[in-house]
Amino acid sequence: MKAPLYIAASLAIVAVCHAEPNDAKHPLFPSVPRTVVVIDSEAPPVVRAGLLQSTLILLPAEEKVATVFGGDTSSWVFDGGHVASRFISIKPKIAGSSTDVHIVSDHGNEYTLQLREISNDSDSHFDSKVFVTPGDQAGKDKLAAMPVFVPAAELDRAKREAAEATAKEATERKAAETKAEAYRSQYPGQLHFDYTWDRKKAGELGLQEVWRDDKFTYLRGHFQETPVLYETKDGKGSLINWDYNDGLYTVPKTVLQGYLTIGKQRLDFRKEGN
Fold it and tell me: Which of 56, 59, 67, 175 is the most exposed place for a label (fewest CB within 10 A)?
């Protein structure tokens, strides 16, 4: 006995509903990272890309991306990032599409790769990460040389940092000049000529003047032979640090009492009120 026509039709509809559509895509899987060698005289290496999947292209560690040229920019997305680096991300938007990409590094190396979307292939593995390296000796030599291109972002940053450094230096220099000018205008008032000594002995030894400011003690003279300078503490002579240049002693402290001596000659001086 034959089934009614409407039953047969229903079974046919159910069968169609449970069948896989002809254009259904199998899932894609990332492959392990691999390295491709680019040689100018040979065909560009093929990079397998997955639909709407990101594949990361990495230049050698010594290089950064200077610029990227993509053949089909409507069906593919190329992203070199906003900061100069060795990374480029590519992503196909249309199944079965292919294009090429040209990368110029900051060292002057040029890398060309052939990109192919593989969602219709029997092999469902796409390249997730691809390391690019030059195969020619000239390209390898460039890796050891200084960069020939400076990415625009780095150039702008360098210009900005140079301008900021120049402005900071000008500000600090102006502040230092202002401080020095103020010190010079106030310095005469900080000099104190309040020392006493035996003027007769001073003439024989060559001492002309003793004075101080808020940090140093000075002795000026015209000496045939440079005397040794001592500080007097508890009635005894004590060696102290001092600089001598062209008849001027500079002591980095206030000396309340001291003396100069050459052989048997000795000249004492003291601060008034001490």
Answer: 175
- Burial (0-12, 13-18, 19+ Cβ within 10 Å), 68: middle
Residues 253, 216: contact at Cβ < 8 Å? yes
Q: Which amino acid is at 110?
A: E
Q: Are strands 257-262 and 228-233 parallel, antiparallel or unpaired?
A: antiparallel
Tokens of 218: 């000075």
* 0.70 surpassed by pTM: no
Q: Is the four-CA dihedral 246, 252, 256, 258 of positive or negative sign? A: negative
pLDDT tens, residue order, the chain (274 aa): 444 444 444 444 444 444 444 344 568 898 999 999 999 889 999 999 999 899 999 999 999 998 898 888 889 999 887 777 899 999 999 999 999 999 999 999 999 999 999 998 999 899 999 999 999 999 999 998 888 877 666 777 778 888 899 889 888 888 888 887 876 777 777 899 999 999 999 999 999 999 999 899 999 999 989 999 999 998 899 989 999 999 999 999 999 999 999 999 999 999 998 7
Name the CA radius of gyration of the chain, rounded.
43
